[in-house]
Amino acid sequence: MATVRSLDPRTAAGTPQPVPRGRLIPALAGLVSLVFAVVSAAWLVVPSTNPFADPDSSLAPQRTLLGAALPPRATAALLLGGCVAGVVVAAVALTTGRGRSRRLTDALMGGFGLVFTLVVGVGLLSEQAIVMAGYLMALLVPAGAVVLGVQVVRTSRVGRWVVGGVVAAASAVFAAGVLPVDAWVTLGRNIAGLAEELASIGVVLGLTVAMLLWALVGGTAMRDGGTLDAPGRWVLRHRRTITVLAALGPVPYAALRLTWLTPWSYGVPGDALPPDTRIWGLLLSSGAWAGMILTIGLIRPWGEVFPRWMPLVAGRPVPVWLAAAPGSVVAAILCVSAVPMIRMFAEESAGEALTSALIFPFWFWGPMLALAVWGYVLHRGSATGPIVGQNSSGRYARGMTAIPGRDLPHHTAKVLERGEASRA
Questions:
Q1: Which residues pair with 305 in a beta bridge?
Q2: More confident residue, 58 or 32
Q3: Who has greater pLDDT, 177 or 262?
Q4: Is the alpha carbon torsion for 50, 53, 54, 60 positive or negative?
Q5: How far apart are CA 45 and CA 36, in angstroms?
Q6: Cα(249)–Cα(352) distance, rounded to whole angstroms?
């Protein structure tokens, strides 16, 4: 078992501390698999609840590869079998100790994680995953903007002028009748109608999380075997470029939706768009711009230390999982949606396919975001990088090593050590 020298004041300085093998992700993967095993069994017992048989469902047969190839009952049975196997593999992973049996378990987890990821991600899910994620992001943006505006006004003199300008511009828009109040009411009613789709949204996002967890389980097994050492070093070295490329992913879509506010709206005649649709386009665009900004945060200081305008946590280190978890989920959703989108592009002419691929670059955006998140985790786990730590005054500052077990994933040190050994 790898060891690191603890800088935690609760332990003796310099005392080697064992780094336990992570069991949280396999446990979560097993738990989510158990949930979907129960759900898919219910679909088999009560066929009317099976979403694979509902032509209007997000998992409708015409929207998924396996759904188009298998009967609805067989698709549900396949999911049940995969989830039951997932529960068993997770149980084995959590109960196996070290030694030869551990290596065999790692091989089992790596193989099963890869198979589960491909079957669920490529075979069962569709582009509806990114549609639902985009809607949820659009709904969160107004609330986030209000909270951000209030905090910036409280803590920044320049920020007060910026927020004041935004409020004045919004007031002018309302006064001019460009986005009338009754359009917002109509949009609110339409959004309320999405409540009927909560079950479908939960299933799609739940399967996406299950796929992500098993991908992480497989990746963890490969990491422990040293398979990801060389790729990890490459990602860590080029993480800034990768992150910038990932941040560019939502820009075409964000710009496209902004055209809905003009007479030259893309894809739809300007006079055919009702005001509530224009507002919805603005919200969707805002969600995409927010995604770009948050992605940039993976390589900015405020992605490692909470800014001073944030109450309670100002100056403290950003927990690695707080950035990595949502980033990983979004990357998984984008990768899942890339396959059906490419199938759709293939049905268009060459010019239309190229345009669609540039406007909806999930094929590029998803992998780049996944690599950017991986680079962020490796960077935060590097004992030699600009990690956030606690100084003698109790404040958090840059340039100090983080406390192992809290901010330092030990595998980064292993990757760096193997790299040094290979160059020696």
A1: 317
A2: 32
A3: 262
A4: positive
A5: 14
A6: 19
